[in-house]
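Reading a protein record of the kind used here takes only a little practice. An example makes this concrete, so a full record is given next.
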Amino acid sequence: MNKFENYKFQEFCYQTINELGFTKPTPIQEKVIPLVYKNNDIIGISQTGTGKTHAFLLPIIDRINTDDDSVQAVITAPTRELATQIYNNAKLFIKYNKDIRVSLIIGGSDRQKAVNKLSTQPHIVIGTPGRIKDLSLDEQALKITTASIFVIDEADMTLEFGYLEDIDAVAGKMKDDLRMMVFSATIPQMLRPFLKKYMKTPVIIEIDDDKVTTDNVEHILLATKHQNRYEVLKKIMMIIDPYICIIFANKRDEVARITKKLREEGFKVGEIHGDLEPRERKQMMRRIHNNEYQYIVATDIAARGIDIDGVSHVINMELPKEADFYIHRSGRSGRGNYMGICYSMYDSADEDNLRILERKGISFKNMTVKNNQFVDLGERLKRTKRPKQQTELEKKVQSIIRRPKKVKPGYKKKRKREVEQVVRKQKRQMIQDDIRRQKKERARAAQREKRNGVED
């Protein structure tokens, strides 16, 4: 069995590993760590919660040369929260080796103060793409030209948020023999030209490709039809008693609206979305980590890598547009040995999305809320799954078309097509006969009216 001792890290790394309670590497750690020591370019494709942060942090920190006062590694994340989370993980190592310098470079903080702090260059830079570009290329306070390792975490989200140009500018200033590690839940087509530009025969590591969601999560669908979704939300909240529940909406203004209404009704609710001011976001994350909220209303930012311990329930006010986002949302619950439940409101417009998720292996329970309890409705599409009953016309046509004595392979399909063709022809004839009949009836009615008029 593979253990961390097999990697021969420095002693301070093992002290941190013991403090974290790690016993053996996760699958992505097992594959990534040796490749970092071989100086390979790496593309790691894995879902949230697979341990990828320590897959790159451990070997990077272990290899830092503290006698060299220059920047040796740059790590980017698409949001301040994600960057801060990686930084907090890195700080645990510094506790046992104070000679390693790590700087957090994110927006929303005092710019000049950040510049002043860089009078001594850090060994590891962790931050958001825009602020790293700002301080390294514009201010030239951060000297990233010496860095030999560049990590892009949550690359698909980085692309989606429009930060690829900033990433490109930062990477362009680094060494020619730059080693790059890219971690992402998916690799979108638009990201591929960038990867090809900077990565030399990268090793691609894909973890749990077939297993899109943990067995610890129960997936429940609630058809809203003509119901008000906010009222459905309140019905769910009256039944469940979560440790922590994340309520997802697709838009920032929708998150703000739901949060406002719940607070007006007396619920103590947290919120995470892009319209919060930097100070508000920082305070909100601190309160969330202090378990001050039982309910948190959020956009998909919270589903992508931000660790919120103890999430037992997830509620989707609407299904996300992308199937992968559903997987990230539901994956916030059911972590470790704990069970989780994901409730999703939907209507007929979501059927295509649901079929995609079902093809990925997610099994949904179809339920509704009645008398303050969940009631199982059975199969969602049971009407469409009923065998089609033959019409009288189809029966008649089928009896007319004689079955040959000798049949060839594919006969049943051919006969079915013949029946359908005749049925369509008969239906068209019936419609035409009906139109002719109506015309004759109208003509006779007109003649009757004409005669009645003459008689008058």
About this structure: The chain has 17 helices and 15 strands.
